[in-house]
């Protein structure tokens, strides 16, 4: 479908929708929500329900939705994916993420290179396809579905060592997938090469955003913590007047949930647009935006000034405490003696996300995203292919039908599952950081920033009760990296001209649908198998822990 240019002046007249379309759309939305709840209750993997509904009711099988509606659902679903990534950044333990950067890079590199190497060996060495076809298949299967991975992790697991490693590795896979997506179209055109800018630009832009965001976060945090009593008197009077302008909840205007929602929307939009137009992944931008807000609005600036205990006690209870300053004119010149009241909330941005965005993400946008993945899978072409089809201009004369794509697809899918599961071995062999090694200069600086003004420190990193054992962490990391999803589909569609090219065992001028169908088999089986495996694994842990307790 061609891209729609904005602004659009095409006006669609209002008319009642056709009853079949209305009923099918209503039934589709209901099935998405109910199947998500059912899959969550049975196998602890809520995303599998909408994924299967998208496959069954999509264009390849039932054909319940027209193309225009499918495109709308793809757009809405991608908003859901961005919000899933944003939520993950808000709940990430940044010091833990920094402390395990080496392990994350090793896991990501293994998850990228091993599928490509095994694809080259199987496609070219065993099945006789060309090197370009083998590379295209491996490029599509080296990615990790970031949305699927994050949807399966609870907020507590995201704050563990394995959760931090998993999110970082999946993000790196996404950036590499973007680079490969830029290379594939050039390889598909025989006469054109690959511009070096296509390869270097996403990498350099990602590094620039990755290094620039912490600097921006540090500057904004210092600005919020600035002692405004040191500014000239007229400005100080204006500042104190602004302090008096509060919401009825008693929280300062900046930390009000509705203001935080506006901050979230503006920051997320800026980072998503900036990273996309600069040349890297918009999902990477969404993660950086959430990490920025998580750092800015955590720590000392969550401890609001309170001029009197009585006024704080009589105010309306909220998650965020706020100062109470008398409206007397003399208070404009001399602020009262500060008394700190520490908020119990993790982060005002997280509070706003939970209040306003989570209710539409979990039952609506999230299921639509996974259903859009299912509907985009060409399931109808997975069981029969026509090798040795000849090209007659723009037409394709099909050759004899073949069903070997089924067993080849299953074999390749199992091989790709094992390739990603091997990533979990890094948890077993990587040395666990000791206390002295863990509290490096950067982490000590973070904990110093997290210290509240009264001297009480945050909970120690090693006291997280959700931290799984090393064996459990290895199993979780390996299974969670298996799902491919949206990035694999994008790369596979871009690589389709390469995958449909002639194999080395047949003459030039023919086309073979089998390699593309094998790749789709692997994407489908790995996405469903990875989500199912993680859901069953977490469910078994929960039942075992309940028995022990």
Automatic annotation (TrEMBL):
It is a multi-pass membrane protein. It is found in: Membrane. Residues 319-331 have a biased composition (Polar residues). One of its GO terms (cellular component) is membrane. One of its GO terms (biological process) is proton transmembrane transport. Its main location: membrane. The chain crosses the membrane at residues 20-39, 46-66, 72-90, 102-123, 135-153, 165-187, 199-220, 261-278, 284-305, 364-386, 406-429, 474-495, 515-539. The keyword Manganese does not apply. Residues 315-338 are annotated as: Disordered. One of its GO terms (molecular function) is antiporter activity. Pfam families: Na_H_Exchanger. Residues 46-224 form the Cation/H+ exchanger transmembrane domain. Keywords: Antiport, Ion transport, Membrane, Sodium, Sodium transport, Transmembrane, Transmembrane helix, Transport. This is Cation/H+ exchanger transmembrane domain-containing protein. It comes from Galerina marginata (strain CBS 339.88).
């Amino acid at each position: 479908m061609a891209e729609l240019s904005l602004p659009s002046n095409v006006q669609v007249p209002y008319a009642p929708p056709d009853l079949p379309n209305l009923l099918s759309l209503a039934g589709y939305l209901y099935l998405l929500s109910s199947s998500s709840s059912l899959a969550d209750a049975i196998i602890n993997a809520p995303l599998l329900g909408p994924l299967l509904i998208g496959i069954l009711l999509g264009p390849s099988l039932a054909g319940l939705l027209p193309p225009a509606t499918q495109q709308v659902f793809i757009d809405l679903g991608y908003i859901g994916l961005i919000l899933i990534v944003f939520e993950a950044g808000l709940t990430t333990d940044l010091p833990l993420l920094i402390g395990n950067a080496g392990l994350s890079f090793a896991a990501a590199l293994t998850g990228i290179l091993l599928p490509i190497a095994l694809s080259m060996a199987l496609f070219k060495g065993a099945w006789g396809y060309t090197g370009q076809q083998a590379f295209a298949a491996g490029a599509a299967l080296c990615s990790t579905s970031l949305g699927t991975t994050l949807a399966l992790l609870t907020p507590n697991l995201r704050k563990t060592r394995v959760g931090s490693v998993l999110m970082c590795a999946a993000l790196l896979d996404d950036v590499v997938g973007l680079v490969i997506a830029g290379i594939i179209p050039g390889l598909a055109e025989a006469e054109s090469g690959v511009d070096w800018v296509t390869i270097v630009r996403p990498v350099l832009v990602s590094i620039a955003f990755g290094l620039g965001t912490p600097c921006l976060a540090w500057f904004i945090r210092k600005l919020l913590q600035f002692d405004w009593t040191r500014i000239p008197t007229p400005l100080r009077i204006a500042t104190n007047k602004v302090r008096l302008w509060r919401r009825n909840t008693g929280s300062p205007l900046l930390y009000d949930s509705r203001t935080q929602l506006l901050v979230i929307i503006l920051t997320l939009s800026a980072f998503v647009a900036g990273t996309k137009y600069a040349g890297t992944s918009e999902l990477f931008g969404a993660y950086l935006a959430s990490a920025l807000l998580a750092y800015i609005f955590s720590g000392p600036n969550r401890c609001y000034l309170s001029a009197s205990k009585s006024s704080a006690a009589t105010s309306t209870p909220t998650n965020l405490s706020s100062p109470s300053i008398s409206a007397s004119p003399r208070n404009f010149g001399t602020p009262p003696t500060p008394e700190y009241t520490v908020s119990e909330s993790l982060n005002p941005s997280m509070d706003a996300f939970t209040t306003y965005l989570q209710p539409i993400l979990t039952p609506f946008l999230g299921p639509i995203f996974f259903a859009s993945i299912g509907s985009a899978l060409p399931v109808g072409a997975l069981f029969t292919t026509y090798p040795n089809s000849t090209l007659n201009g723009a037409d394709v004369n099909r050759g004899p039908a073949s069903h070997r794509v089924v067993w080849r697809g299953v074999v390749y899918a199992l091989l790709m599952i094992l390739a990603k599961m091997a990533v979990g071995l890094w948890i077993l062999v990587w040395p666990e950081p000791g206390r002295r090694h863990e509290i490096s200069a950067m982490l000590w600086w973070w904990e110093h920033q997290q210290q509240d003004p009264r001297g009480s420190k945050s909970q120690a990193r090693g006291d997280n009760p959700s931290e799984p054992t090393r064996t459990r962490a290895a199993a979780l990391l390996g299974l969670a990296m298996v799902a491919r999803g949206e990035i694999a589909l994008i790369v596979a569609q871009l690589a389709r001209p390469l995958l449909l090219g002639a194999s080395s065992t047949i003459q030039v001028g023919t086309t073979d649908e089998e390699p593309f169908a094998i790749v789709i088999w692997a994407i489908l089986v790995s996405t469903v198998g990875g989500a199912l495996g993680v859901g069953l694994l977490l469910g078994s842990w929960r039942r075992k822990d309940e028995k022990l307790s």
